[in-house]
Write a structure and sequence with these properties.
- By secondary structure, the chain is an alpha/beta fold.
- The chain contains twelve helices and eight strands.
- The protein has one domain: TIM Barrel.
- Strands 1-2-3-4-5-6-7-8 form an eight-stranded parallel beta barrel, surrounded by six helices.
- Helix 2 links the parallel strand 2 and strand 3.
- Helix 1 packs parallel to helix 12 and helix 7 runs parallel beside helix 9.
- The structure holds phosphoenolpyruvate (PEP).
- The site of phosphoenolpyruvate has 13 residues, from strand 8.
- Phosphoenolpyruvate (PEP) binds next to strand 8.
Length: 250
């Protein structure tokens, strides 16, 4: 399976010009990439700028609402992001959980709605520093996974991507040890196997996210056997982002 390399720009580019520069740099660099699949998730306000602008690079949104339309001021719908060319959507990022009060129940509604809409949800899971210190990592992941996938039937489960993002590693420069990432990978695969069977467990991509750079990415694929990476800060620098993709382009 070719690696997935997902860019989460968060709310960072301040202007359309800045966003266009990062996009153009990434698209230009992507010509060096043979197998890895690049997915860029710009802020919603800039998504429309990139619709249909690059074949090799796919577009994703950073969030969505679960309702099709209606009185939900400030929200973005799946119909809207699909219409402007998104095929992927980040769901349950730890910043959404922590800063915007997203619960597992809300995240589950988003996952179900994205699947029903034909978009691929990238469901983010991860423990906080406190939960890790208390030895609750696996319980937290099990809970987030079970609740996030509640009601997702086997027929739809093969459309899901998981992203393990230890919260304490996001934007901190503290990288998760590959042995922990590998343990989590095995744990999540086992949980998916129990829920949906071996074929889906083997096929479901599990990404790692949290302070990924070109000098640490390889171990997450080679040692922890992740299917790819979700990159925040480093995705704003197209040269570094493409270097990351090059490292795992096999
Ligand atoms: C993220 O926000 O998903 C992320 C992984 O951020 P960073 O790479 O900056 O740690």
């Amino acid at each position: 399976m070719a690696s997935l390399v997902v860019a989460n720009w968060k709310m960072n580019p301040k202007t359309a010009n800045e966003a266009k520069k990062i996009f153009a740099g990434t698209v230009a660099g992507s010509k060096k990439i043979k197998r890895a699949q690049i997915i860029i998730c710009p802020p919603s306000a800039f998504l429309g700028l990139f619709a249909g602008k690059a074949k090799k690079v796919k577009l994703g949104a950073q969030n969505c609402h679960w309702e099709e339309k209606g009185a939900f001021t400030g929200e973005v719908s799946l119909a809207q992001i699909k219409d402007i060319g998104c095929r992927f959507v980040l769901i349950g990022h730890s910043e959404r959980r922590k800063l915007f009060g997203e619960t597992d129940e809300m995240i589950n509604k988003k996952v179900l709605a994205a699947l029903n809409f034909g978009l691929t949800p990238i469901l983010c899971l991860g423990e906080t520093a406190e939960e890790k210190e208390e030895g609750r990592t696996f319980q937290v992941l099990k809970d987030q996974l079970e609740k996030g996938l509640n009601g997702v039937i086997k027929k739809m489960a093969d459309k899901i991507i998981l992203a393990y993002e230890p919260v304490w590693a996001i934007g901190t420069g503290k990288v998760c040890e590959t042995c922990q990432a590998e343990e989590v990978n095995i744990f999540l695969k086992k949980a998916i196997n129990e829920k949906y069977g071996r074929t889906i467990a083997n096929a479901m991509p599990i990404l790692y996210g949290g302070s990924v750079k070109s000098d640490n990415v390889l171990s997450f694929i080679k040692e922890a056997k992740m299917s790819g990476v979700l990159v925040g800060g480093a995705s704003l620098d197209p040269k570094e982002f493409i270097k990351i993709a090059q490292q795992i382009d096999f």
